[in-house]
Amino acid sequence: MNTQRIDAVPLGAGVVKRSTRLADGRELIYFDDPGTALGPDRAIDERTLDPRPATATMRQDVLTGDWISIASARQNRAFLPPANLDPLAPQTPTNPSEIPSLYDVAVFENKSPSFGPALARATGDAPAGDDAPAGDDDLVELGLGRSRTSVGRCEVVCFSPAHEGSFGSLGVVRARTVIEAWADRTAALSALPGIEQVFPFENRGEQIGVTLAHPHGQIYSYPYVTPRTRRQLDAVEKVGGDLFARILESEQESERVVLQGEHWTAFVPFAARWPIEVHLLPHRHVPDLAATSDAERDELAPLYLRLLRGIDALYDTPTPYIAAWHQAPVRVGRDGIRLHLQLTSPRRAADKLKFLAGSESAMGAWIADVTPESQAERIRAAIASVPEVSA
């Protein structure tokens, strides 16, 4: 296997970034742990790949203003492959996976993206969308039969070369590397033409719809401000620019706090929707992960790991969840929307899930099955049963 030497770009906490390309031109970025045993030489991707799929098209639902990206190429993505054909593991002679070399953390452009590879204007080797949105202002208008090119970028974040696991199974050093990668990619993706919001997230468990057991997450870069964030912007406008500070102060004085550090507080929110729902907020206002300090990232790694391991300690088997990092839009609301994690799970008992039926799915009218205060008590006890996380 041929190799190439990839230049190193130093990041925070001793993490090193190395950027290259896959055989079809997609970007691949290695994020090396501090003190990694990996060298600067990485294998070249020598696969013969089909051309990248055309960028999807979005259609507007005129009744809600929501944009629906119709990405039919995603129908062919991998579904629960065996470990020997893991597409996120390092390549071997019998497994022509997406990542040519052994790695610590790796990020690459999704082969079957919901948004992109086209951008609002041609940039590098990314073409311009045929009918790219003319900024988010264009997308908030309403009309029948409106469509636009689904410009943007979707990336896969591989937390580890291991075949199975999740963020919670990482060590502190590796978790810190992933956080550095999230911050770096948030900054880079926010700078791309036509990107209005960047969303890192992790889906965990088949009950959530996960199709790969490999420990990984994703980053979506949208050409619009998402519906949930628009509602938050409306709330900030109505209640005040210090809304998130007031929420944090109120929650810190409540019995719903489950974990707290010098820079972060985790709590079950006052109006929790899901059977398991925890929010994690930084103590100062930061719009996104790229704006966090080294001290905030250093504390986040062990604190977040302990939170996830506490959630798993609620039951005898791993709990499915969605870990959603809400970040402020790229251009608007950055003084009002604060970075925060929303961790949710439909698990309402060891062998029961909450399904979104008529009221939630059709009307958006939620009915909670347990009080946030009682659930916070259970989660605190579960976290207390987990050993302290150390480097």
From TrEMBL:
Catalysed reactions, as listed in the record: alpha-D-galactose 1-phosphate + UDP-alpha-D-glucose = alpha-D-glucose 1-phosphate + UDP-alpha-D-galactose
A Gene Ontology cellular-component term: cytoplasm
Location of the active site: 216 (tele-ump-histidine intermediate)
All copies of domain Galactose-1-phosphate uridyl transferase N-terminal, residue ranges: 95-225
Molecular functions (GO terms): UDP-glucose:hexose-1-phosphate uridylyltransferase activity; zinc ion binding
Pathway linked to the protein: Carbohydrate metabolism; galactose metabolism
Region: Disordered, residue numbers: 118-138
InterPro entries in alphabetical order: GalP_UDPtransf1 (IPR001937), GalP_UDPtransf1_His-AS (IPR019779), GalP_Utransf_C (IPR005850), GalP_Utransf_N (IPR005849), HIT-like_sf (IPR036265)
Listed Pfam families: GalP_UDP_tr_C, GalP_UDP_transf
UniProt entry keywords in alphabetical sequence: Carbohydrate metabolism, Galactose metabolism, Metal-binding, Nucleotidyltransferase, Transferase, Zinc
Superkingdom, taxonomy of origin: Bacteria
EC class (word): transferase
Example GO BP: galactose catabolic process via UDP-galactose, Leloir pathway
Domain Galactose-1-phosphate uridyl transferase C-terminal: 251-381
EC number(s) stated in the UniProt entry for this protein: 2.7.7.12
Cofactor names: Zn(2+)
SUPFAM superfamilies for the chain: HIT-like
NCBIfam families: galT_1 (TIGR00209)
Family designation: Belongs to the galactose-1-phosphate uridylyltransferase type 1 family.
Name of this protein: Galactose-1-phosphate uridylyltransferase
Native organism: Microbacterium hatanonis
